[in-house]
Amino acid sequence: MEIKEFIEKFAEAIEVEDASALTAQTAFHDLEEWSSLSVMLLIAFFDEEFEKEVAEKQIREAVTIQDLYNLVTA
Amino acid sequence: MTSPFSLEGKTIIVTGASSGIGRQCAISCSHMGAKVMCIGRNEQRLQDTLAHLAGDGHAAYSYDLSQTHGIAGLVADIVAAHGKLDGLLCAAGIERTAPIKLLTVQDYAEIMQVNTFSAFELARHATAMKHFNRGGAVVLIASITATIARTGTAAYSASKGALISAARVMAAELAKRQIRVNCISPGTILTPLMQNALAQMSDEDRARRVAGFPLGLGEPADVANAAVYLLSEASRWVTGQNLIVDGGFTIQ
Ligand SMILES: NC(=O)c1ccc[n+]([C@@H]2O[C@H](COP(=O)([O-])OP(=O)(O)OC[C@H]3O[C@@H](n4cnc5c(N)ncnc54)[C@H](O)[C@@H]3O)[C@@H](O)[C@H]2O)c1
Q: Which residues of chain B have pLDDT under 70?
């Protein structure tokens, strides 16, 4: 999956309505839509889409959307 | 003068007695003189609770309350072995935090099965005329999440809200036999389970949670003392209520 598509799916997963403002360099923890429950939504998304088990801690430590992308495509 | 809070001579079923709030309720009831019938899943931990009870005549029954079909038999066994009941306290419960997007009907059903339907089935059979003494009391442990919106708790909150609604109706139906039914809605109580949950939160989330409680977080004994009140003669004119025990969380 290309990063562009990843960003769109990421936006859908955590329910960001306007994905056009997002880039690979966006610090996702600062997004208005980000909440403590978003971690669970992302874990479910990674599991469904990539069949990857990602730990909460890894998501907390990631900074940008690119970091998340690297987690699941590495 | 004997204390109006005494539970002397009463036989009380306590579910969830192997851990946390239920365990403390069992211990506190025993200290107030009750004979306690402890229900939980883990036999070993139930034995540990038994070892901490004051007085004698107590018993432990390990039973998975999600198996609601067997509850009638369980109650009958307890009454056959220990005599008629004077109280039922339901503290067994599970929590599953997830945003509504991830909660399936299956999740709602599983949580309701343990938190709600098992309590209804216990209340139904325990309060049967042949099993329950006149003047007895039922206490269901609900939660403040039944009345406030804490994100991630839709299924849990629904399971607890149903207890509060049904308790009012049960109270009205059972009043003619002088049986009272009440709920307790605790705020965040430092049980092993909750300490675990708090440990997993980010520092920011944890600080925010703790800051919501003007009197700080609660202890299991804070809930157990409220339960003793609702199980004793001290509350003889109180029924169908939801007693909030939350260190002031919901007044703000
Ligand atoms: N800890 C809190 O902050 C808090 C706040 C509000 C309400 N509550 C409620 O108080 C009750 C006790 O919570 P706790 O914090 O002591 O939790 P806990 O996990 O320490 O104890 C739960 C108890 O329920 C029993 N249980 C769970 N599923 C069962 C099943 N299928 N069959 C039989 N027993 C089962 C367990 O054996 C255990 O004894 C729960 O109903 C919970 O929803 C807790």
A: none
